[in-house]
Amino acid sequence: xxxxxxxxxxxxxxxxxxxxxxxxxxxxxxxxxxxxxxxxxxxxxxxxxxxxxxxxxxxxxxxxxxxxxxxxxxxxxxxxxxxxxxxxxxxxxxxxxxxxxxxxxxxxxxxxxxxxxxxxxxxxxxxxxxxxxxxxxxxxxxxxxxxxxxxxxxxxxxxxxxxxxxxxxxxxxxxxxxxxxxxxxxxxxxxxxxxxxxxxxxxxxxxxxxxxxxxxxxxxxxxxxxxxxxxxxxxxxxxxxxxxxxxxxxxxxxxx
Length: 256
Known about the structure:
Largest sheet: 6 strands, antiparallel
CATH class of the largest domain: Alpha Beta
Mean pLDDT: 90
Number of domains: 2
Structural class: alpha+beta
Distance between the termini: 76 Å
Low-confidence stretches: 1-5
CATH architecture of the largest domain: 2-Layer Sandwich
CATH topology of the largest domain: Alpha-D-Glucose-1,6-Bisphosphate, Chain A, domain 4
């Protein structure tokens, strides 16, 4: 038998390598297909799960096969298969290693537990099949446990100034504002995630801080509250809380 045939990869090893490549391509494709409306997000999540589980299976098969010390060509193909199957598993490990906040299991976050900002225009924007907007005592209890750092933002700006800055901050963060009413101090917007195209609605409420005046000038200070709610999914993996805190940081930094 020629040396090339002896040292070349086996058909089985080539199939495993090619499958690993397919699963690697499927990893971003599962999300981007949902992002651009090629299939529902449920199909995208299913494809993502297939990519992850398939990659895990490939790692197990290649590990066992390599332990048996195959021919040089087969060994090379298996090593490539293991390399191609690594990114999906890294993604799984990242999810599993997430902090406790990502495991809260809620998707409705606010800075004001007792009187959360209310959505108005979002009701029509979200549609009938979206998550409910109700903020219940049960959700509040979970949020207090996992996201105690999420709180109202006090500002020395007047309500009118804070409203203008909130609009600018939201636009800077890439949110699409679909409703704003300076009279009531309410801004409603939506942010679309990059990969799966998930939409999360945000409402910003700006009120005067009662009893707070700026340095004796008589100008009323303001208090800014936010609420961020995912349209689909049970858990947001901490995304809504991070979004609110990122807004507050950018809002405060813009005054420096």
